[in-house]
Design goal:
Chain lengths: 368, 368
């Protein structure tokens, strides 16, 4: 297998290193805008040098971002090259274009590292689908949010202080919005649901609430009630309909989710025979992410394509009613008052996310 | 695929049900000593009726126990039939005979349900081996012990009372020795190490200590120090040597292992690129176990054999020094005293297990 590697950042370098030790695949060209010199591959600055190289059968996209990653991946597929990517935003955003294109061309398209980094999550969904119907997927899918929430919980720190520390240690970006506003988790749960249930979720019907507004006093409230806050994604198959959402969620101390430390992920599926299965590991990082990119390359060599056939479009129905912790201008009747905040009576996911849009300074968390 | 199913107990019935809904495989004969009548399969009381049936290409062993399971499985392989089993005692005990036999005959032999029940653990070790070197495997592999320890910890109950409750609820056998003395975990970690490291561990060099002697006052001691006791297996690849042992282990509250509730398992591998990966799920039960038996059957259909080639024999070297909680007649110098027990200075795993053999009424736990 001759590989054209797009990008030579954290993940790209890891892929280059791991494949360098293998006999069954080699990176022959690397697209990198900086001047680099590599012992075993040619560095190029123009994607066409990879696209028009007929000896390259597989493209690994490790650039991140939507553009030009999308244009490059689409062109690679159109030119008959297999594609492996770790880019969840790309696969989620252009699912309805890239999946049918890969299927039509009979090409292999895989993205295991896009969800859970080093966790073999999408590949395990693929395996599970062979034998059972999956009924639920989701969990803690973003290491940055977990790092922030874990440190706020363990050390009683403020959101801003932990975020700054996380940025200093490389656990959060300078602009942390994609992580703390839940967008990264939103991409991951939509992609997971598409594969688990064999559908294409209408992204606009999947609401997302992030952790940006959480305060130390919220965490104190949770502690006083034996609860721990995590950013949790949920997607369920409810017979012929589906629900899907991302939101801060209060889990009981002692539950597996509550014990997830630092920047780790804990992702779970429920199946009708396996019951609950959860996966704990490094959701990011050079080697864990590159590990799953190379796993995908091994699977491409073995003839494996995408994890599930491209499925029909489906809108999420989030009429499910939950009770919520709300700190903000909640004017409806409350079930309880917790020091400056309320616990609501049952309110649907749809209704609560609509209320949050009108009250963007509030903090909400579903109570498990 | 035509399947001869040996045994029609908890797991066997599950396999019969799940395969009954599939078009690619069917159970055509079931070996069962009781009188049963099945709509889609012939019940037989003599194994020869399966062995000599040339239309049966695959045997599923779901009887449990060593004999006659071993004789039947060996005969099936010798007769050219693929074998899938959930029997950890069988695969571990007769590893050096069954593995080479299956390899020599070019047959598929799989046992994913033997470790972790519904967790795709052995299959994930198989996947991990394709890309990285595994350096450690182990964890909480026995649901009965976890159920007992979890209830002692959460409710402050006595060992005997929790064991009786577990027996009543079906979480423990009438004779619980295989579980509480750690034998089941011992089989599982040896099998895991054999696959992860590509070796055949000398079982006699792998010491095991169980939980039979734990008392409510031990659990009180652990709580007072922020620790939780779990039965944990460990196998490490240390360059050219290996260590492997099973023992009660004290983990810090807040660690993922400490949060494993009820009869769940949490099994972990460390790899040189994936880093830590853990798997949480139902380690037993009809449908979770049958789920992985059927996964194996799908893999047999896809041409997959055992998870790793049969490897060279290796003895465990357990000279690693740990500190230990000991309640018993410990006469060596201690580092600390904890209400009726001691915390030792560093003592090797080999030495502590040897001491335990001389002091069979003592309770020991390694401190993580």
């Amino acid at each position: 297998m001759n590989i054209g590697l797009l990008g030579f950042g954290v993940v790209g370098r890891g892929v280059y290193e791991i494949t360098g030790a293998r006999a069954d695949m080699q990176v022959t060209k690397v697209l990198c805008l900086e001047d680099i010199s590599l012992p075993d591959a040619q560095a190029v600055k123009n994607f066409d040098e990879i696209l028009n190289d007929d000896t390259i059968d597989t493209v690994v996209e490790a650039m991140g971002g939507l553009h030009p990653a999308y244009e490059f991946v689409r062109a690679a597929l159109e030119a008959g090259k297999n594609v492996v990517t770790s880019n969840k935003a790309l696969v989620c955003t252009f699912y309805d274009e890239l999946l049918p294109l890969a299927e039509r061309k009979g090409l292999k398209f895989r993205s295991t590292a896009a969800v859970g980094g080093g966790i073999g999550w999408l590949s395990e969904l693929e395996r599970a689908r062979r034998v059972q119907k999956l009924t639920q997927v989701g969990g803690i899918m973003n290491g940055t949010c977990n790092y922030i929430l874990d440190n706020m919980t363990r050390l009683g720190l403020n959101y801003d202080d932990v975020l700054k520390q996380a940025q200093k240690l490389g656990y959060a970006e300078a602009n942390p919005s994609t992580d703390v506003d839940g967008i990264d988790t939103w991409h991951k749960v939509i992609l997971s649901a598409n594969i688990a249930f064999g559908i294409s979720l209408d992204k606009q019907t999947v609401p997302v609430a992030g952790i940006r507004n959480i305060q130390a006093k919220d965490v104190e409230n949770f502690k006083a009630h034996g609860l721990v806050c995590k950013l949790i994604s949920t997607a369920k198959c409810l017979g012929d309909t589906y629900s899907a959402y991302v939101q801060p969620t209060l889990v009981k101390e002692g539950e597996p989710e509550a014990a997830v430390p630092m920047n780790y992920n804990l992702i779970t599926f429920l199946g009708d025979t396996s019951e609950r299965m959860s996966f704990f590991g490094q959701g990011a990082g050079r080697y864990p992410t590159a590990y799953n990119v190379v796993q995908d390359l091994v699977d491409v060599l073995a003839g494996k394509g995408f994890y599930a056939p491209y499925g029909t479009k489906a809108a999420a129905d989030n009429s499910e009613k939950l009770t919520w912790y709300v700190r903000g201008n909640w004017t409806e009747e409350a079930a309880e008052t917790w020091d400056g905040a309320v616990v609501t009576k049952p309110v649907s996911v749809t209704q609560m996310h609509a209320w949050l849009k009108e009250n963007p300074d509030a903090f909400i968390a579903a109570i498990c």
